[in-house]
């Protein structure tokens, strides 16, 4: 089975060369408080989208992260490429501001069956210019915490697009899917993440999961809701390996500065 490498180098100020797969990043900003490292994610991304009310967050909160600068200068510097969603949360002044700067606005108000995040992922999948999908990584800011129905909707997007690399982020942790189709090698960026971590068999039980590099490793172990799930685990080194008969969620804490 093929090996998939993972590394949270997008949390570093500069992405080291030859350190895991070289990836092209896209960023989706959701309608929650911007993580403190939002400007870093923005810098690493080659395509930046706001999901509906996520545009209000960029407009309102990016200037707060640069208190010594003029707010309108900051807003012009952090101009999303695309705003997509059902447009029931974005304020008119924000829409008008970014439209005047040339942001592409995609109004999908007729679609009330998929979330704004889902709509944004569809855009990236279909229109990310000339990017091999296996080297594309979509970072989603503001995906965790807050309203639980939204949080579950955001996790569901990982399963809806399980062939894409998608990382859900908050200030405190990140989550991505480890597809059962691969063995996984996770390179821990110890300066910015860990040691708390989890492996969660959401969706279906796992009959057999095996890991290395954790304080409490799994050894051909069954995991299911109602039985064992691996929460409150700890990474012990710089490399974790995972193999499983089912898709698992990997989550790891993000360090405060
Ligand atoms: N509290 C939250 N927690 C987690 N994700 C959120 C939260 N609020 C919004 N999001 C994410 O941001 C996206 C855009 O948010 P927005 O508020 O514009 O959505 P919405 O469609 O108006 O939601 P709703 O009508 O259900 O309140 C959502 O699709 C969701 O992915
Ligand atoms: C069974 C079912 N449950 C909830 C919704 C509502 N819904 C889901 S996504 C979405 C768009 C949010 O921007 C809305 C309103 C639905 N359509 N079908």
Automatic annotation (TrEMBL):
Enzyme Commission code(s) on record: 2.7.6.2
Keywords attached to this Swiss-Prot or TrEMBL record, sorted alphabetically, are: ATP-binding, Cytoplasm, Kinase, Nucleotide-binding, Transferase
In which broad location class does this protein mainly occur, judging by the first location in its UniProt entry?
A: cytoplasm
Q: Which InterPro entries match?
A: Thi_PPkinase, Thiamin_pyrophosphokinase_euk, Thiamin_PyroPKinase_B1-bd, TPK_B1-bd_sf, TPK_catalytic, TPK_catalytic_sf
The record places domain Thiamin pyrophosphokinase thiamin-binding at 182-248
Protein's organism? Gossypium tomentosum
Spell out the protein name for this chain: Thiamine pyrophosphokinase
Q: Which GO terms describe its cellular component?
A: cytosol
Described purpose of this protein according to its UniProt entry:
Catalyzes the phosphorylation of thiamine to thiamine pyrophosphate (TPP). TPP is an active cofactor for enzymes involved in glycolysis and energy production. Plant leaves require high levels of TPP for photosynthesis and carbohydrate metabolism.
Q: Hey, which pathway is this one from?
A: Cofactor biosynthesis; thiamine diphosphate biosynthesis; thiamine diphosphate from thiamine: step 1/1
The UniProt entry's GO biological process terms, in alphabetical order, are:
thiamine diphosphate biosynthetic process; thiamine metabolic process
* Compartments, record wording: Cytoplasm, Cytosol
Pfam families xref list: TPK_B1_binding, TPK_catalytic
For this chain, the family text in UniProt reads:
Belongs to the thiamine pyrophosphokinase family.
